[in-house]
Design goal:
The chain is an alpha/beta fold and 295 residues long. The chain has helices at 13-22, 38-42, 51-56, 68-76, 81-84, 99-111, 124-130, 141-152, 166-195, 199-207, 214-225, 234-251, 256-270, 282-289; strands at 4-7, 27-30, 46-47, 60-63, 90-93, 115-118, 121-122, 133-138, 155-162. Strand 5, helix 6 (99-111) and strand 6 (115-118) form a beta-alpha-beta unit. The chain binds nicotinamide-adenine-dinucleotide.
Length: 295
């Protein structure tokens, strides 16, 4: 069984790392916020003082960090993964970052004899806890085959899409679909509530038909409870849409709906909601219509 290092123990990383421990892997962990390692250490993981130390103790290193600059810092920076890596180490970045940044990091890793996969996830905190994430991987097939079992301890759907960076291309598409779904749900449910339908029973009636979706079932109960505790922060969805817009424009794809939803998220950020869950997008529509959609 391979020894694993895990860097980034936030909302997603912590439960994912716990599932690796549960599956019997020997685990070394690191987070720049030292208290975030406490739970994992109590569950049997070794603490490290840097990414370099994590790499020195591991055959496979997983990173689960907010954005491209954080992954570059943790992997390429001083005391980072590449400083401690032996040739043959496999690096799996499971964060959602820009595909171009993935390719840049993979090229630097290759110079040190380190193979890399990008393997971002979808499913949010509940599926991270259950170990049922959807994992979308990019990178060489033979590397993917070596770590498929490890990914399977964190996800119930583990699919290699293609070359390095393609995991994050799929994830950008995923994030466009999720953002537009939440916006559609918000627009529709504010209309339903203000026009006189009961929000709770209206939602129950809708969810069984064609408009029912995983997004609706994950986010509508949060809206009805007025609970916008993240989950997935609006600021992280802004980060994903920045990466989506940049990638789309680079390859020549206009994305008009993504641009519109980006402006809704920007308005919420200005209103002080950047740390709300992205289900909090409904507050933009509620403010426009002067009504709240609650139980
Ligand atoms: P988070 O902010 O809760 O966690 C990130 C962790 O990384 C924090 O504990 C932080 O201290 C640590 N960190 C930051 N820079 C570091 C560094 N240089 N070295 C070591 N540790 C460092 O974020 P999250 O919600 O867990 O998301 C992580 C990634 O997963 C993001 O790319 C996000 O877009 C993606 N994602 C999140 C969700 C979700 O529902 N939260 C779902 C799918 C994908």
């Amino acid at each position: 069984m391979k020894t694993i290092g895990f860097i980034g123990l936030g909302i997603m990383g912590k439960p994912m790392a716990k599932n690796l421990l549960k599956a019997g892997y020997e685990l070394t962990v690191y987070d720049i916020v030292p208290e975030r390692m406490n739970d994992l250490a109590a569950a049997g993981a070794k603490r490290a003082a840097s990414g370099k130390e994590v790499a020195a103790a591991s055959e496979v290193v997983i990173t689960m960090l907010p954005n491209s600059p954080d992954v570059k810092q943790a992997v390429l920076g001083p005391n980072g993964v590449l400083e401690g890596a032996r040739p043959g180490l496999i690096l799996i970045d499971m964060s959602s970052i820009a595909p171009a940044a993935v390719r840049e990091i993979a090229a630097c890793a290759a110079e040190r004899g380190v193979a890399m996969l990008d393997a971002p996830v979808s499913g949010g905190e509940p599926k991270a806890v259950q170990g049922t994430l959807a994992i979308m991987a990019g990178g060489p097939e033979e590397v993917f085959e070596q770590v498929k079992e490890i990914l399977g301890a964190m996800g119930s759907s583990v699919i290699r899409i293609g070359d390095i960076g393609s995991g994050n291309i799929a994830k950008l598409a995923n994030q466009i679909i999720v953002a537009l779904n939440i916006a559609a749900m918000s627009e529709a449910m504010v209309l339903a509530a203000k026009a006189g339908a009961n929000a709770e029973t209206g939602y129950q009636a809708i969810r069984g038909g064609l408009a029912g979706s995983a997004v609706l079932d994950a986010k509508m109960p949060m809206v009805l409870a007025g609970n916008f505790k993240p989950g997935f922060r609006i600021e992280l969805h802004i980060k994903d849409l920045v990466n989506a817009l940049e990638t789309a424009h680079e390859v020549g794809v206009p994305v008009p709906l993504t641009s519109s939803v980006m402006e809704i998220l920007q308005a919420l950020k200005v209103a002080g909601c950047a740390h709300d869950d992205h289900s909090g997008m409904i507050q933009f529509y509620e403010n426009l219509a002067k009504i709240q959609v609650r139980r």
